[in-house]
Amino acid sequence: MLKLEQHANIKFCFKLNKSATETHQMLRQVYGDTAVSHKTVCKWFGRCKEGKESRDDDDRSGRPSTSRNDDNIAAVKTIIRSNRRLTIRELSEETNLSFGSVQVILTDDLNMRHLTTKFVPCILTAEQKESRFAIPSELFERSVADAAFLSSIVTGDESWVHGYDPVMKVQSSEWKTPSFPAHKKARMSKSLVKVMLIAFFDMEELVHIEFVPRGCAVNAILYVEVLKRLRESIIRKRPEKLRNGWLLHHDNSPSHTSLLVRQFMAGKNLAAVPHPPYSPDLAPCDFWLFPKMR
Length: 294
Description:
47% of the residues lie in helices and 10% in strands. By secondary structure, the protein is α/β, with parallel strands linked by helices. It folds into 3 domains: 2-49, Arc Repressor Mutant, subunit A; 70-109; 129-163 and 190-293, Nucleotidyltransferase, domain 5 (2-Layer Sandwich). It has a 5-stranded mixed β-sheet with strand order 3-2-1-4-5. It is elongated and about 100 Å long. The protein starts with a helix and ends with a helix. 14% of the residues are buried.
């Protein structure tokens, strides 16, 4: 309705021999930001000069499009629901419609968008989702009820690390005059040297770190030996944890949950903090320590 009113005012100004610029300024004074643009005023002035009263565009020549009818829309909808991975070109060949018609039917009539699949580490089952909710809730309640709960936890994991150039960009900075050319340094890239790092830490700092010897795999036998050396590090660095008791947190990898490891922990009266399955985002090493270290 507002455009119709402005169109009537433009026709009136045209009959008064006003220019398009003067008419647009008058519309801005009356309608403010809702006034039509100067380009639109010029367009309607041109139509008035041609003796056309309507503000609608003239009908275009040629045969009207008949591809976007209800039957074709229903056909495309049925085919795409049976196989959502079909491309527009494949749909065009199957329905005998043009590429553009199929594209318009998908985007405008069916309101569909072509998106790639989102990859996730694992598709969790209903039981795993429930465990992922229940375990963090239980740990949170324990941390609220017991102020010393978080400080008693020692968490750890292993990860591959690469060797880098020890000279960082900031460390290689130097003073220079305007005429002296600046030195260049290639961006650091991963070296061919990589080694498996095992790290354990608590709320204060790192408790124990070690590198796995070349050619050795992190299995239950090696992990038991690592836990023995971890206990020795705690005896030296955190003797109060032995007196007050401490908890070990690690993920559910086979080397951590094997029978040999569980027997060792039971013999040392060492309890483990439960960890939900397939939840690297809940492991402090994976979401905090290793990303920062890399």
